[in-house]
Amino acid sequence: MQFTMRRRLVATSIAVALGATTLAACSSDSDGKDAADSGPVSLTYWAWAPGMDKVAAIWNKGPGKEAGIQVTVKKQASGDELVTKIITAAKAKKAPDLVQAEYQAIPTLVSNDVLADITDEVKGTKDKFAPGIWQQVTLGTDSAYALPQDSGPLMFYYREDLFKKYELTVPTTWDEFAETARKLKKEDSSKALTTFSANDSGQFAGLAQQAGAKWWTTEGQKWKVSIDDAATKKVADFWGGLVEEGAIDNQPMYTPAWNKALNTGKQIAWVSAVWAPGVLTTGAPDTAGKWAMAPLPQWSKGENATGSWGGSSTGITNDSQHKEAAAKFATWLNTDEEALAAMVKEGGIYPAATAAQTGGALSKAPDFFSNQPDFYTKAAEIAKTTAPSAWGPNVNVAYTTFKDAFGKAAKAKSKAQFESALTAMQDDTVTDMKKQGFEVAE
Amino acid sequence: MSGTTMNTGKAAHGSGRAPRARSRTRATGGSVRRAPYAFLFPAVVLFLLFFVLPIGYAVYLSLRKVEVKGLGLGSGARSEVWTGLSNYTAALSDSELVNGALRVLGYGAIVVPVMLGSALLFALMLDTERVRLTSFTRLAIFLPYAIPGVIAALLWGFLYLPSVSPFYFLLDKAGLPQPDLLDGGPLFIALSNIAIWGGTGFNMIVIYTSLRSIPVEVYEAAKLDGCSPLQIALRIKIPMVAPSLVLTFFFSIIATLQVFAEPTTLRPLTNSVSTTWSPLMKVYQDAFGNNDIYSAAAQAVIIAVATLVLSFGFLRVANARSKQEEAR
Amino acid sequence: MSSLAAQNSAREAAPAAGAAPGTTQGPPPRRRVAFVPTLVLLLGAVYCLLPVAWVVMAATKSGKELFSTLTLLPGTGFADNLADLTAYRDGIYWQWMGNSALYAGLGALLSTAVSAVSGYALAVYRFRGRETVFNILLAGVLMPPVILAIPQYLLLAKADLTDSYASVLLPLVLSPYGVYLGRIYATAAVPADVVEAGRMDGAGEWRIFARIGLPMMVPGLVTIFLFQFVAIWNNFLLPYIMLSDDEKFPMTLGLFTLLAQGNSQPALYTLVITGSLLAIVPLIALFLVIQRFWSLDLLSGAVKS
User: Fold this and answer.
1) Backbone angles phi, psi at A130, to 5 degrees
2) Which of A11, A212, B128, B130 would staple A231 via disulfide (CB 3.0–4.6 Å)?
3) Can you name the residues that pair with B68 across neighbouring β-strands?
4) Region annotation Disordered: residue ranges (chain C) (predicted)?
């Protein structure tokens, strides 16, 4: 330990004396580990996706070593709390160089002066991503605040065997979806097509996004909030109607009861994102090979759009002393073929970069969907149709109100309450923004 | 010597005021006078550093708010400014906070008596003569306190949600009605059950440890007088552990008013528990969900003051009563 | 005295000073069992153990069995779960376990020490400001810890202490609950005349505390140690805010990262359940060690010293 320290000290002074280039040349001659230790730039990266440390190790051994940039991953727990933790750390000037940030958290982080504007550093990467994805890291401006890492286009998952058994057809429109739900209820009242979960704001946001909703937009120096716009109302009415008539269940997802319902075929379909196979593998293990995936139902025939649920980006903080180096790593992580393949393999994520969505690690369908060999080809087709989404600086407030208001409405099984819940979401969001001093266009 | 020591010593704490009668007698010089301050020094320093400073900071934050310019994007668009008491007035006029307080009072009305009652009961039983399996039951009752909260939601989900719960399975087999535990009145019972399950053992140990410190000869005298075990428990043991009972009550009131873990555990399982079910959940939601530490701090101060009134009020009443008894 | 001692031995768990060895483990006297109290305690134990049994059973289930078999029936996957947990990221779970042991062990030790001296001072001395100091220390629990975590982080950041072991340890050393308990136990256990007698013998105040007061307070102090140990062991929010380096994480926080890997990731339920079960084992061991100390009659300490 002492030895390494001294060595690093020596190395640093040499670096000062001779300039960094010389050092890089010297150290590449010595054995790998020490060269890594004495690298001039070391970055920290807060991430929650599994296996990111292994992906970073590839960088550290390969391109990172050449560039003299070493990255240490510090694994975090994802969730709303992480945003607060990052903001608090940034307040104390202790934020890491890089953070994994969900798309909807980007405006909050930018607004709190956490994420740096990296437009210049990541020039030329825009084309690697679908426009709807890229727009989420620019917040609709000309700047870029992060690089897209993974995405979660919405799809329709259903039990192929049970659909056959009850003679249901795969719905291509939401009207057909409702019919399917009713038909199933008629065939077997103990079953439900799916559930409306008031716990998962992200899913609802994705569905609204598909319908064309743009919850936050800017007009000059003012924000415009339209959570209760016609498109979202349509979505809320639709689901509220199904819950009210009892065609679908009203209990939250991700509970032991929900897992059991999927596992035993009590619920036979799930509107979810491309990452659903992983969740089904652990939550409904007995149903392997019995599911199939189809595009999300559309609002009218011939349309072709989907929303997204989840997905995250790599951002660089204002605290970082090495923004350029961090941007190099972020670019590599999210555009390099080897990096993306490693992320898919180690982290099980669905990459945001278009080129990585087919072939390579994703050429084979997930084990759970072995009955659908073209799973990822189909998924990539769907991913291209992702509608743009528009996030604002207080998504969390809207999401919190969603959980409470829609939870109440779902419990009451009342379509009318679904509508008022939406109004509550809009009102709470606007009130909070005004309280913070944002200019809000009425 | 030891014999007399025991007796006089005990007679004094019976009334819980042992410390009084004494060191004043011969305050032997400065070292006695300085000693308590020296002994309290570490606690006071730690208190200043890790309680007073952060509390002060929280109070400071409660008087501040963020002000955003324009779209609030880019550096310098967001600044912290003084806002006076507006966070407080907003919190006090927020009906959700009041509703939360009412829910918490209902919940506390179940939890505190049941939990402390059973803790006292178990402690007395453990301290009874000729009881078997004390080691096992003592550990078993304490064990829930040791279960990490990380799996609480999963654990209670498996026990409360009808489709996976073994109890509903049995009810179903027996053809009995199956109430919805996660709604309406039963929800309070479901929540209280978690708290009682987790906290009884803890309080039992506090009381039990106190019972252990009662010297046996106190009972022997009573026994010779022909007191039954029940009478000994009621007339001697309970009054002697009164200070511990006061302590458990005091902290249970505080824990109830700051209830957070139990409803947070059940929240993901049902539509019936909102993110603002209890006042502290709202504080947490504002601080960690909505990044509004300023409002959260103001609400926390309000909760702290309410807790102060209730808990110290209780302590005062309890102390006044014990003084009265001393006087008798 | 001897007749007293004879009667005392009937009191199973608390032999009088100087009588039979002071542990519950001593052979129970051959007398009638008190049925009602035993039954009440057993009922309490069953009530408390049922949910714990769920953790035990669930830990034996493979991921496949967790949601598909009856809740309270055992599964077949315990060995696999254990192997998976150990294999997870090169055994970082055991690192978390070690960290938790360090946080909880050292933290509880320091906390007990502070509670002991403070409780003793508040119980034994009569001095100006005693009740004020006591009440103010108690008032420390009024501010919900949830709201203190962020200010504590910001203040420790000023001292450049965040993301260190100290950042999790230091804020937990002072426990108002521990001080209160310490005072109550000291009041009950340390008689005034013993302290007086010590002074008459010319002992200094510290010496009286260390040699006479402290041994008398042992049963109470182990309780404080136990509580603080478990409280720190299961603490979540403070380490969550303070630490970013997951090699310094305590077990609870580490397990939480397995549950919260983003909504696109399946939560690693079986690992978390198995990890939680293993995390209870050291606490049981601690409890078993500590309960021996409760059986010492408080006054025996005085007699011995």
Assistant:
1) -65, 145
2) A212
3) B78
4) 7-28
Digit-coded pLDDT (tens) for C26-53: 444 456 788 899 999 999 999 999 999 9
How far does C59 lie from chain A, in Å, by closest CA?
A: 15
What is the DSSP pairing of strand A146-159 with strand A308-316? antiparallel
Q: Quick one: fold of A153-309+389-441? A: D-Maltodextrin-Binding Protein; domain 2 (3.40.190)
Residues of chain A with CATH 3.40.190.10: 2-152+310-362, 153-309+389-441
What ipTM did this prediction achieve?
A: 0.85
Which three-class secondary structure state does DSSP give residue A46? strand
Cβ neighbours of A183 (radius 10 Å): 15
CB atoms inside a 10 Å sphere around CB C50: 15
The distance from CA C234 to its chain's CA centroid, rounded to whole angstroms, is: 10
CB B290 to CB A400 under 8 A? yes
Query: Distance between CA A440 and CA A221 in Å, rounded?
Result: 9
Longest Cα–Cα distance in chain C: 73
Strands A41-47 and A69-75: parallel
Under CATH, which architecture does the C92-304 domain have? Orthogonal Bundle (1.10)
Work out the angle at residue A148's Cα, subtended by the Cα atoms of residues A214 and A138, and round it to the nearest 5 degrees. Answer: 50
Q: What is A2-152+310-362's CATH superfamily?
A: Periplasmic binding protein-like II (3.40.190.10)
Whose structure tokens read 């006078």? Answer: B33
Task: Say if the Cβ atoms of C142 and B307 lie within 8 Å.
Answer: yes
| Chain A positions in Cβ-Cβ contact with residue B73 (cut-off 8 Å) | 107, 110-111, 139, 141, 393
State what percent of residues in chain A have pLDDT above 70: 91
* Beta-carbon separation of A113 and B76 below 8 A: yes
Closest alpha carbon to C223 in C116, C150, C140: C116
Close Cβ partners of A19 (under 8 Å, ≥ 6 residues apart): none
pLDDT tens sequence for chain B (328 residues): 333 333 333 333 333 333 444 444 444 567 788 899 999 999 999 999 999 999 999 999 999 998 888 888 877 778 889 999 999 999 999 999 999 999 999 999 999 999 999 999 999 999 888 888 988 999 999 999 988 888 888 899 999 999 888 888 888 888 888 888 888 889 999 999 999 999 999 999 999 988 887 777 777 888 888 888 888 888 889 998 999 999 999 999 999 999 999 999 999 999 999 999 999 999 999 999 888 999 999 999 999 999 999 999 998 898 888 777 766 6
Candidate from B139, B201, B216 with C-beta closest to C284:
B139
Residue B37 with chain C: CB contacts under 8 Å: 127
Give strand pairing partners of A440. A223
Domains annotated on chain B, with CATH? 1-62 (no CATH), 94-327 (1.10.3720.10)
Q: In this structure, which long-range contacts are made by residues C144-147, counting pairs with CB atoms below 8 Å and at least 24 apart in sequence?
A: C144/B258, C144/B260, C144/B280, C144/B283, C144/B300, C144/B303, C144/B304, C145/C237, C145/C238, C146/B260, C146/B280, C146/B283, C146/B284, C146/B287, C146/B300, C146/C237, C147/B58, C147/B283, C147/B287, C147/B296, C147/B297, C147/B300
Q: What is the distance in angstroms between the Cα of C169 and the nearest Cα belonging to chain A?
A: 19
d(CA B171, CA C114) in angstroms, rounded, equals 51
| Token pair belonging to C42 | 């057993």
How close does chain A come to C178, measured CA to CA in Å?
29
Our measurement of the distance from residue C90's CA atom to the centroid of its chain's CA atoms, rounded to an integer in Å, reads: 29
| Whole-number Cα distances in Å, C240 to A90, A312, C110 | 15, 21, 22
